[in-house]
Amino acid sequence: MKDPLISEDMLHAYVDRQLPAEERRDVEQALSTDREMHAQAVTWQHQNDALHALFDPVLDEPMPARLLPQAAVVPPGSAWSGNGYWRVAAGIAIAVVSGMAGWSLHGLHGSERVASIPVFAQQAAIAHVVFSPDMRRPVEVGADQEAQLVTWLSKRTGVAMHPPKLGAAGYQLVGGRLLPGQHGPVAQFMYEDVSGQRLTLYISTDQKENSDTAFRFAREGKVNVFYWIDGHQGYALSAGIDRPALAEIAHLVYAQLEAKSQQSP
């Protein structure tokens, strides 16, 4: 950001509508002349909107019976009773993920339905929502440095990483990043088509041994996810495209990963 009077914290507060009126006017004036700052504010707003779309449906759901206190007496209508408790919890989840971006994805459970899918697939959907709208830095290492990206992610995760080639499906590699998983680091590869539509492949390396590689499907807000587990590795492909189209790409990804694994010594 070029304007020294507008800090990153101020811009975050502006996007979150937490600035006093006078400071809001200062930020808006800076945004009108600074295209880079304006683009960053728009990106953060899109991330906030996507996170709310993912978590807001939880706000009015009743709290699961298994989480209700057995002995505690909670005054009816208080913030911690029934739906009020769940609303507070969901609000905290949104605030945490918004504030910490990809670094607070561990252990977030949006609802009973979400909790029924593996944690890594749930984290994959959230990571997709957080990073795919980012126009300035959607990845840590770009596709122009693919060799370095593969070496870095392979070293950090302890597993040879091979980003699939999805040109046949109309998608090109944007790059990738390292994220925290449930028990260790995970990799995220991002792809984009000519229209700007993005999809992400999330690879976790700390799953329980599993030889059932059947695809599973989940929908989190507007994000569709196909996920599967092969040995100790969990894969989740996330995108805002329809289920049949994503299923075709998932099969393409699986075929390439399987071919690579058979080539490995």
TrEMBL record:
Name this protein carries in UniProt: Membrane protein
Organism (species): Oxalicibacterium faecigallinarum
